[in-house]
Every structure is written in C-alpha cells, then in structure tokens.
Write a structure and sequence with these properties.
The chain is of the alpha+beta class and 83 residues long. 39% of the residues lie in helices and 33% in strands. It folds into two domains: 38 residues; 44 residues, HU Protein, Chain A (Irregular), CATH 4.10.520. Strands 1-2-5 form a three-stranded antiparallel β-sheet, with helices on one face. It has a two-stranded antiparallel sheet with strand order 3-4.
Amino acid sequence: MTKVDIVEAIYEKVGFSKKEVAKIVETIFDIIKESLEKEDKIKISGFGNFVVRKKRARRGRNPQTGDDIEISSRRILTFKPSQ
C-alpha cells in the first residue's frame, strides 16, 4: 500500500477532499518521522509500536573475500504489532 492508496481509502470513507486528506496524511507522516528521528517511541493503540533501537558495532566477514570487517553501530526501526 502506498501513500496514494492511503489517501484514496480515507477519501472514500470520510468524504473530505483529496487535497485535504493528502495534507492530513502528509502531516501525520511528518510527525511520525520527526518523532523517530528524535528516537521517541511511537505507540498507536490497536495498531502497534515503532521503536528506534541501537545496534552496537561488531565484527563481520565479507562473504566474497572472507576478510574480517568492522560493522559500525547503527540505528534500526522496529515495529511490533498490537495483539
């Protein structure tokens, strides 16, 4: 499902203009994006939780050459659906 699909589905169910719905959807995604950039948890009741987690640096191996490499630390986004 794409952003356009979401806008279309909301437009059909709610009856707002597509322009208004597109602006609302874009605003929601902007708020979620800003929160995740600050590493805030996002909990949407009945839907699930988005959490930014930190993975520490670790040793790895290049599968093509077999050389040992250092994999740097990074942040990953996880989603856990509600039950």
